[in-house]
From TrEMBL:
GO cellular component: cytosol
Protein name (database record): PaaI family thioesterase
Matches recorded under Pfam families: 4HBT (PF03061)
Keyword Ion transport among record annotations: no
Keywords: Hydrolase
InterPro entries: HotDog_dom_sf (IPR029069), PAAI_dom (IPR003736), Thioestr_dom (IPR006683)
Amino acid sequence: MIEELSEVVENGEEDEKALLAIALQAIRQKRERNSSLLSGMLGLQGRFIDEKTYQFIVPITPFMYNSLGIVHGGMTATILDSVMGSMVNRSLPQGQYAVTTDLKTNYIRGAKTGNLRAEATILHRGRTLAVVTGSIYDDRDRLIAHGTGTFMVLGSPQD
């Protein structure tokens, strides 16, 4: 494996070298923040922009491209699921967590370069289910995708 890595570092194309850098970023983020490797591969770092809206700024990288050179639809859906799930999980009391039970994604246009801005707000949160809406925009503030997600609330506040 070390030989293969060295060969890519020395002779690889720029997108191959970028992928190695992204993998190292994911490992670093997992170790530092105990986040998932996928979260690190996408460079997810979230924040509340107001009381009801959670946001990710996601750099577009070669890892995200499909064969047409645009962000893969599965990546777009993953980012929507992640920002909506983060919004729900940050709203729950300690000991509870939420998992996706349904995800609906509407793709509006493709994205190629720059950053994606993903935002989510909770439409409804009950005792066992939460319904969330999310949107992804490009650097020019154009809507890339919109979706809704349903999340099941698990665990006990007493845990």
